[in-house]
Amino acid sequence: MILSAYQPVRVLHHFEAISQIPRGSGDEKRVSDFIAQWAQTLDLKVVQDAYYNLVIYKPATAGYEGAAPVILQGHLDMVCEKNSGTAHDFTREPLKLYVDGDYIRAKGTTLGADNGIAVAMCMALLEADNVAHPPLEVVFTTDEEAGMGGAMNLDGNLLAGRRMINMDSSKEGTFVVGSAAGATAEYAVPVQCEAAGAFSQVYKLVVKGLTGGHSGSDIHRERGNALRILGNVLNQLDLAAELRIVSASGGMKVNAIPREAEAVIAVDPAGADKLHTAFEKCVADMKMLFRVADPGLDITLAAVASASVPASDPTAKVMAGPCGKNLIASLILLPVGVQCMSRDIEGMVAASCNIGVLETVADAVKISCMPRGASNEHNHQTELKIGALAKLTGSDFYFAQRSPAWPFNPDSRLITAFADCYRRMYGKDAVITALHAGLEGGIFLDKLPGLDIISMGPDIHDLHTPDERLSVSSTARVWEFLCGVLGEMNA
Fold it and tell me: What is the reported pTM?
């Protein structure tokens, strides 16, 4: 075991164990079965539903039998992102963990500390015999990263508790007491193909080297979005030397800021010089724009040695001119990044949108978008922009899912209890804030009237990217705090 020499031993033991099991969104059965069978060996009551959500019940320790139950909640799935040069099959292979100073990382891939460390802490708590606590209802949901389908389909009647600790936050000493509404919009630009004709010189345009990040918690950093940059470059090239698009793709997950994108384009050889001149200027402009926020930006344009749409081949097809222009317009006009800031919490994003995945299929180019908002109305305003653009470009769009906001509760007793406990244990004040990322709190509020929720977690950096890393020392302190605060929840 790679992590056996580090504290907290049992927490990191469980984290390493579940890291051996593939658990991308939609592929949680194996990890759900593993944990269910493990919990049964502890003689704990376990409920596993048709969506592979788990609810595990642990009785109160001595002296806490009369206390109200506490719900602890995290999600089983992880975002599966890898570097372009990394060979890793997320459906079959375990994550390759290693320790780098104070951080746990995975070689070339996301780490899955979001939200595997919550699962690991809950497992350590379920097996512990030296931690005082009220009755526990531990909930592990599925599909959180792809649409929160697990939480939405969970039977609320399985839970008696009305105090809930969500473990899906990523900054030690910061307690989250609200989160954004979210949606997934599927936007499709219709494509009609035509003969390539004079557009016989083929190029591959590649955008790479970007940092990426979480489309909620990192959106305010103004990092480059590879799909938006691809659209901007295509637009400049098309203005200089009319082009035809053969295909376009990029991004991996709708809730991750895309780091890479590419397009195959065709031009009339007579316009090649103008194309290259425009490309060089555009690259210089983009690098200047992102010199601080994303200095690793790399954009290349290379001729395809064996042209895939030679003029001599009457069967060669490219996207018809208007289709390509509608695609370019969509990439540069769809809402991306921060849309407005909060008037209630200084420095907090109130509305944003990410375009996360671009895919060319038989008769369309599909763009997956994720609006987020501090309220449902914030989201609605962004959705109106997407709908208006779809109408102008003749594109289709629909919302595959929506998740409700978790609004701030000024009367929360958990806020006071956690803040007081943190001050006693560490001699300083915790940060109380809301989060622009989407947590499952709003869904649980709808299911459990009167629920009081707070979210916590250790330091995790660069979520949803292959640079994701978990602080070992922070994990130890957060585990210590979790045990401490549960010991004070005896009412």
Answer: 0.76
